[in-house]
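Incident log, support desk, overnight shift.

02:14 A customer reports that sequence design results differ from what the structure should imply. Their input is reproduced verbatim below. On-call engineer (initials T.W.) acknowledged and began investigating.
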């Protein structure tokens, strides 16, 4: 069965809340030799994106969106236990996301895949205050901070958090990567919020993270005051700030 056929076969029962049918589709794929990582990439992640798109286009209602998202989360939980795990290599990742079931599932999938690849993962979920994230970054000194599934109204806050982390120099060599959500739909928005990296999917994020060089730290003269400069808001970001 092709990737497209598998996804289409899954979408009908998941949108109608048929938990058993969805589990059987996934179990059959696993029994036929399909790797769990492939199902993350070719079934679970695309299904979440399809569900989100259908809901934003008013082609499914909130009940259908919530049922489908929660079923898909149980599928991701099951696949997580079957992932082949590599030896830990000591690199650290902090993951946060927008508040919402779909965003948390996407972030959880990223956490699962990174952990299977040997990363030490600290998954925060959504709704965490910016200053607490910055504080944790300062304590852990991770190699990467990943922000997953942002909504349009979250974008000004993402920019503020990145500015804050850089201003206080929490972790100078840490890369900040954004993925999913509005960043997949608005070209170059990741640059406007001053992220270091952008990935459309969890697998893209993993490939980038595994090869990314540490961010070059900004040298400062000890004791010198930080330069204050007025940040110009690009048009797209300014529009989102008005809508937030």
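02:41 Re-run completed on a clean worker. Output:
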């Amino acid at each position: 069965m092709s990737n497209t056929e598998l996804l289409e076969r899954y979408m009908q029962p998941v949108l109608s809340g048929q938990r058993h049918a969805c589990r059987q589709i996934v179990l059959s794929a696993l029994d036929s030799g399909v790797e769990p990582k492939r199902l993350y990439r070719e079934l679970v992640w695309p299904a979440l994106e399809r569900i989100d798109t259908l809901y934003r286009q008013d082609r499914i209602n909130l009940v259908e969106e919530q049922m489908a998202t929660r079923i898909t989360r149980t599928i991701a939980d099951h696949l997580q236990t079957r992932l082949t795990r590599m030896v830990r290599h000591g690199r650290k990742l902090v993951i946060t996301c927008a508040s919402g079931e779909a965003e948390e599932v996407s972030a959880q999938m990223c956490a699962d895949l990174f952990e299977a690849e040997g990363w030490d993962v600290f998954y925060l979920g959504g709704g965490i205050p910016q200053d607490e994230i910055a504080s944790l970054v300062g304590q852990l000194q991770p190699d990467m901070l990943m922000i997953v599934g942002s909504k349009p109204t979250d974008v000004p806050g993402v920019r503020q958090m990145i500015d804050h982390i850089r201003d206080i120099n929490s972790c100078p060599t840490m890369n900040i990567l954004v993925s999913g959500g509005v960043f997949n739909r608005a070209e170059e928005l990741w640059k406007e919020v001053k992220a270091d990296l952008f990935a459309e999917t969890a697998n893209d994020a993993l490939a980038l993270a595994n090869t990314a060089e540490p961010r070059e730290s900004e040298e400062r003269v000890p004791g010198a005051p930080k330069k204050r400069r007025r940040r110009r808001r690009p048009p797209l970001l300014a529009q989102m700030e008005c809508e937030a």
